[in-house]
């Protein structure tokens, strides 16, 4: 079919200067992000390479058993704390987003939205101080009860810590930190639910919860995953809050959340040991940072694959 006069005029018309500037700026920003990401990866690989092939004697690590034995406990602690933080924060984020968008009065919803957004601006060290000074002592009694009555569950095996600075407290602090990010993303997705879908469900006799379950939650499924993955990324890389709260023991691998012996995380271990490290020890710490970089990249790629599998809704907004 030959092109119409309008199509020919559109294709041949020169772009405005503002359009060209915006298009070039957007393209340049995208390329710059890829260059920075590649530069970070190249730096980590180059600096970690000597440690990957060094002997345990050259590394001068505390356990003297090699790099894998050194990194595995902190990697385990990183994944453990981030997982349980996400388990705590994800249902709360969905519930808060639903309350703000579909249950709360307008004024209350606006005020609550501001409060949730402000939590994202609180420095992580403040959360760490709150967790160590207030939350940890408050959990001593409950964790002792958990150890006495639910000790048959591996995560409550005990004995409970006398200071309260446990992996459980670290997970709660991380959950509070990632809650604003996940809530903000999920809330905006729920607000974009096509109005016709909601009204059609209500018109067919559905209750408010049935309308949310059949129209709102399926529409926001990809955003729920995306918001949780953004929060998980922050939990994986959090440093100072975990370093302040967690009483870590080197080389420990345990699922127990309330014990006095807890595994550290990669980010906290780097922050605490880097100032006094030198030589090959620094390369070993950078190698652990490379592992954290790879884990974060894999998790984000997996989240993107899950989001892309969802089919877009059709219909009028």
TrEMBL record:
Q: Give the record's membrane topology.
A: Multi-pass membrane protein
Instruction: Report the domain of life of the source organism.
Output: Bacteria
Q: Which UniProt keywords apply?
A: Cell membrane, Membrane, Phosphate transport, Transmembrane, Transmembrane helix, Transport
Cellular location(s): Cell membrane
In terms of PROSITE patterns, this protein maps to: ABC_TM1
One Pfam annotation, family name? BPD_transp_1
SUPFAM superfamilies assigned: MetI-like (SSF161098)
Instruction: Report the transmembrane regions from the record.
Output: 21-49, 69-100, 112-133, 167-186, 239-258, 282-303
ABC transmembrane type-1 domain mapped to chain residues: 75-303
Function comment:
Part of the binding-protein-dependent transport system for phosphate; probably responsible for the translocation of the substrate across the membrane.
| Family that this chain belongs to | Belongs to the binding-protein-dependent transport system permease family. CysTW subfamily.
Q: What is this protein called?
A: Phosphate transport system permease protein
What is the species listed in this Swiss-Prot or TrEMBL entry? Streptomyces boetiae
């Amino acid at each position: 079919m030959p092109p119409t006069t309008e199509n020919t005029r559109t294709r041949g018309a020169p772009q405005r200067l503002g359009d060209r500037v915006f298009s070039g700026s957007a393209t340049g920003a995208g390329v710059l992000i890829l260059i920075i990401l590649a530069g970070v990866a190249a730096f980590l690989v180059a600096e970690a390479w000597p440690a990957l092939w060094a002997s345990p004697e050259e590394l001068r690590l505390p356990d003297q058993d090699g790099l894998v034995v050194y990194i595995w406990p902190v990697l385990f602690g990183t994944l453990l704390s981030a997982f349980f933080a996400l388990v705590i924060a994800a249902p709360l984020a969905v519930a808060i987003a639903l309350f703000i968008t579909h249950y709360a009065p307008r004024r209350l919803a606006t005020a609550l939205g501001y409060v949730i957004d402000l939590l994202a601006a609180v420095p992580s060290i403040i959360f760490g101080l709150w967790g160590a000074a207030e939350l940890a002592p408050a959990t001593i009694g409950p964790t002792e009860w958990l150890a006495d009555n639910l000790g048959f569950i591996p995560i409550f095996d005990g004995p409970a810590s006398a200071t309260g600075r446990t992996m459980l407290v670290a997970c709660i602090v991380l959950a509070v930190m990632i809650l604003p990010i996940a809530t903000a993303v999920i809330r905006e997705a729920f607000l974009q639910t096509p109005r016709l879908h909601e009204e059609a469900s209500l018109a067919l006799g559905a209750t408010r919860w049935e309308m949310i379950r059949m129209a709102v939650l399926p529409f926001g499924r990809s955003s729920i995953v995306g918001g949780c993955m953004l929060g998980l990324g922050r939990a994986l890389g959090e440093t100072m809050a975990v370093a302040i709260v967690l009483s870590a023991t080197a080389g420990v691998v345990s699922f127990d959340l309330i014990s006095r012996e807890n595994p550290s995380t990669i980010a906290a271990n780097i922050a605490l040991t880097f100032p006094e490290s030198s030589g090959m020890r620094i390369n070993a710490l950078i190698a652990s940072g490379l592992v954290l970089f790879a884990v974060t990249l894999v998790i984000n790629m997996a989240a993107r694959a899950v989001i892309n599998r969802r089919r877009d809704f059709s219909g009028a907004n």
